[in-house]
Specification:
Layout lengths: L12 E5 L14 E5 L12 H6 L4 H14 L6 H9 L13 H8 L4 H14 L10 H5 L1 H8 L4
Parallel strand pairs: 1-2
């Protein structure tokens, strides 16, 4: 029997996108399971409680570090962007962090944000009792991603 053809009989593909300003829910197309993050973009995942704990900090401590940074860096090219994040009430799930992601990760860790997020996702897969509340990695990834990617990887 030729097993090569069997590999494609029930093939699945996954499409994972930033939510940006779109609704989180997105329909699948054929064999493609399409998903959007529950947070605005992948950068927002570094501000989850899980990623912050992995870096040895927490949300309240980071907020204070951000306030100090704003007070001390008035001439920085992205000062207005960080100030807007503060003025918007530190909306870590929805705020557009693209311009300030490197500033934020510098206040969190010496790792690139992508590494911190990747390690947090890997830890969530291994955690028998992951945090699933508001501010958690589960909350920011969204229910569909959690069900389709994280839980099956356990």
């Amino acid at each position: 029997m030729d097993n090569r053809a069997a590999v494609y009989d029930d093939a699945r593909a996954y499409s994972l996108r930033d939510r940006d300003l779109h609704p989180e829910l997105i329909d699948d197309l054929g064999h493609v399971t399409r998903m959007r993050l529950a947070c605005r973009a992948a950068e927002n995942l570094m501000l989850t409680d899980d990623a912050l704990a992995r870096a040895g900090t927490n949300w309240a401590t980071l907020q204070q570090k951000i306030r100090v940074w704003v007070a001390s860096n008035g001439q920085h090219q992205y000062h207005a962007d960080v100030q807007a994040f503060v003025d918007d009430g530190f909306d870590r799930k929805v705020h557009d962090l693209k311009n300030i992601r490197n500033i934020l990760v510098g206040l969190i860790s010496n790792k690139p944000w992508e590494v911190l997020v990747g390690q947090s996702i890997a830890a969530a897969i291994l955690d028998a009792n992951p945090n699933v509340g508001e501010g958690s990695l589960s909350d920011y990834l969204g229910a569909k991603i959690w069900r389709q990617i994280i839980l099956p990887a356990r």
